[in-house]
Design a protein that fits this description.
Elements: H1 2-16, H2 19-39, E1 47-53, H3 58-69, E2 73-79, H4 83-91, E3 96-100, H5 104-111, E4 113-121, H6 125-147, E5 154-162, H7 170-200, H8 203-207, H9 213-241, H10 251-274, H11 279-296, H12 309-315, H13 319-331, H14 337-366
Parallel strand pairs: 1-2, 1-3, 4-5
Antiparallel strand pairs: 3-4
Helix pairs in contact: 7-9, 7-10, 7-11, 7-13, 9-10, 10-13, 10-14, 13-14
Length: about 375
């Protein structure tokens, strides 16, 4: 029995002395609880909207103020023409446009009915539904308070979902799934491949070879670039032929953006391999550091606007966030490079940054 307790004590000490095991046992559960607790929510907050007020009377101003003061929406622009609506929606700066008909108050007081049109960006159908429902709830709450004063007003609320009129969930999940698969496959397989060389002792063979560190890295990643690119093409084809997801923009641009994101993911995989001594460590870092942020902090499933400020700030460092925006804009909205150049430049800058660090660390370890 004494030997048994000694063995148990030794196992406890072995666990406590291993920082990686302690991180898995205590760090990961705490991180998951905090992230899921803050991110997984069906509420909306500070959703960017615009208002096109053809009437500009006291009643439309009251309704607009009530919508903004609710805390659910943030007024980004007061439009003056219907021609501005499409441009604002295409840029992605706003998620909804509220349009009041000309003579809104006059129609309401004279006929007891007035028109309100809600245009929602349905490239993310779940968020679009929430936004429309919250807006209609505020409108009807205003209407009920008016009717309590002895009136019998009613709103004719017309809703139009832009870019995804049938509200298909595939419009949200295909771009997000593409980002997650390409990030995981590219980064994980690259990191594991190089870590395997260290684990099996074959890295020494590469070290004494005439190949330079940069050549070793390039030779390692080329097969994964090809395989990951094939995965991207397969996902696009499945989305188009199986789920009916359109490709409204340039197919060449779409494939080029996929290739850029794959290169970025591969540079991350190389960087992970430089700090990993075994395949298990490389896999753990890839899963924990890449998969969870891709799912939770990229806007794939949960709107970034709903998250706490600190998580919104962290999301700016997540490459999948920009890639998902690019894919949605090209495939769903039909945009060109002129409207996605900022996200493209950010991804390119991240790729160069990670690649330079990875090559430097890899060279140092070889030397």
């Amino acid at each position: 029995m004494k030997s048994f307790f000694g063995f148990v004590k030794k196992e406890f000490l072995h666990i406590f002395r291993d920082p990686r095991t302690m991180l898995v046992l205590f760090g990961m559960p705490v991180a998951l609880v905090l992230i899921f607790g803050y991110v997984v929510t069906n509420e909306i907050k500070d959703i960017p909207i615009a208002v096109l007020d053809h009437s500009k009377d006291e009643m439309t101003r009251e309704i607009t103020q009530k919508i903004i003061s609710s805390g659910y929406f943030k007024l980004m622009a007061e439009l003056t023409s219907s021609n501005d609506v499409e441009a604002m929606m295409l840029k992605g700066d706003i998620k909804e446009v509220i349009i009041f008909e000309p003579g809104f108050a006059v129609s309401l007081q004279k006929d007891g009915k007035a028109d309100v049109q809600l245009l929602a960006d349905a490239s993310d159908p779940n968020t679009a539904n929430l936004i429309v429902n919250y807006t209609k709830g505020i409108l009807f709450d205003y209407l009920n308070k008016q009717n309590q004063a002895g009136t019998s007003y009613q709103f004719d609320t017309r809703v139009r979902m832009v870019y995804n009129q049938s509200l298909k969930g595939v419009y949200m999940f295909v771009p997000g799934t593409m980002a997650m698969i390409l990030m995981l496959i590219s980064a994980m397989m690259t990191s594991i491949s190089i870590a395997r060389e260290k684990e099996l002792g074959t890295m020494e063979v590469l070290m004494v070879s005439p190949l330079k560190p940069f050549q070793i890295i390039i030779g390692k990643v080329i097969p994964y670039i090809v395989l990951s690119f094939i995965n991207a093409v397969v996902i696009i084809l499945l989305g188009f032929f199986v789920f009916g997801l359109p490709v409204r923009g340039s197919l060449v641009l779409l494939l080029a953006e996929n290739l850029l994101f794959i290169s970025l993911a591969l540079s991350l995989g190389i960087l992970i391999s430089t700090v990993s001594e075994s395949q298990q460590v490389a896999m753990f870092i890839s899963l924990f550091a890449l998969m969870l942020p891709t799912i939770l902090l990229s806007g794939f499933i949960y709107p970034i606007e709903n998250m706490p400020v600190i998580l919104q700030v962290i999301s700016y460092a997540m490459p999948p966030k920009y890639f998902i925006i690019i894919i949605k804009d090209i495939m769903i909205k039909g945009e060109g490079l002129g409207l996605v150049w900022e996200e493209t430049l950010i991804l390119f800058g991240m790729m160069i940054f990670f690649l330079l660090i990875a090559v430097k660390r890899f060279k140092t370890r070889l030397e």
